[in-house]
Amino acid sequence: MIGSRTRLAGIIGDPIRHSLSPTIHNAAFAAVGLDWIYLAFEVPRGAAGAAIDAVRALGIDGLNVTMPHKADAAAAVDRLSPAAQVLGVVNTVVRDGSVLVGENTDGDGFINALRIDEGVDPAGMRCLVVGSGGAARSVVRALGVAGAAEVIVAARRADAAHAVAALASVGRVGRVEEADSVDLIVNATPIGMGEVVDLDALDLPVPADRLGAGQLVADLIYHPLVTPLVRAARERGAMAVNGIGMLVHQAAIAFRLWTGEDAPLEAMSAAVLAELAHRG
Ligand code: NAP
């Protein structure tokens, strides 16, 4: 029952009504038996600073931040974690006494999904990341920190690709045709997202004939659950995962930072899969 001791976490963004974060976190609070609730707040562009002030004034215990507020939130908090500092964007705000700390859990969420769900450690691996947006930035930095041997960044804008590659000491700009020379391929573009009408007619972020056995392909997309890239990779004998793992593990890190409890990963995954099935 919600009462006067119930603690509040939430997410700000615009749009926000599609967010899976309330589903994931409310399932986690219920599974652990915590008297917490998690709500979605539609906050218009430019109002992130006011929302962070509200977190201070109301004593809100945890906040996630999504588009278009991630950079504004980094400017509005009191302190940044090393990842948030380097990336310049915040997806999680944590209260440390009266100090609000901006974190970025996406990159570690990606790495934890590989390590915990797939039993794969990217240390020593040659990696290719396709894309140069926010997700690519988080993943490239995290792969570098995790000890990848090389992180090749392939993106359609050369300047953006160089900026992303610079986030890992082992980063360099390359081409998607190099996919056959790497151990791990990450799709950090929206290519393949959404309703799939004809799988065979779709472009892939990486040429299918560069995929094969011994490789791990990680598509950050989770709608559909089997993306054209995941399907193509599996058909050619590669191991392939969708973006559910990263989604759940970035939330799990936030959950632990806010509550101090280990995140109930199975309950979180089950809740998000049930919600996606319900949405169709
Ligand atoms: P973003 O900041 O908008 O970046 C998208 C990137 O994809 C940009 O580099 C963009 O290039 C590139 N791109 C878009 N369409 C392309 C095309 N047709 N050909 C080549 N490159 C193309 O988005 P984001 O936040 O990084 O997200 C990227 C993907 O990751 C999305 O599908 C998102 O749903 C997913 N994601 C998943 C998780 C998770 O937890 N699983 C978390 C974050 C993101 P330009 O810059 O040249 O436009």
Present the secondary structure layout.
Layout: E1 7-13, H1 21-32, E2 36-42, H2 48-58, E3 62-65, H3 70-76, E4 79-80, H4 82-87, E5 92-96, E6 99-103, H5 106-118, E7 126-130, H6 134-145, E8 150-154, H7 158-165, E9 171-173, E10 184-187, E11 216-219, H8 228-235, E12 239-241, H9 244-259, H10 265-279
Parallel strand pairs: 1-2, 1-3, 4-6, 7-8, 7-10, 8-9, 10-11, 11-12
Antiparallel strand pairs: 3-5, 5-6
Major sheet: size, sense and barrel closure? 6 strands, mixed
Overall 3D geometry? globular
Beta-strand content bin: 15-25%
How far apart lie the N and C ends?
A: 30 Å
User: Would you identify the CATH architecture of the largest domain?
Assistant: 3-Layer(aba) Sandwich
Q: What is the tally of helical segments? A: 10
The overall pLDDT average reads 96
Q: In total, how many beta strands?
A: 12
CATH structural class of the largest domain: Alpha Beta
CATH fourth-tier homologous superfamily of the largest domain: NAD(P)-binding Rossmann-like Domain
Ligands bound here?
NADP nicotinamide-adenine-dinucleotide phosphate
Fill in the CATH topology of the largest domain.
Rossmann fold
Number of domains: 2
Structural class: alpha/beta
Helix coverage percent of residues? 25-40%
Gyration radius, rounded: 19 Å
Uncertain stretches: none
Topology pattern, helix = H, strand = E = EHEHEHEHEEHEHEHEEEHEHH
Placed side by side, the strands forming the largest sheet appear as: 2-1-3-5-6-4
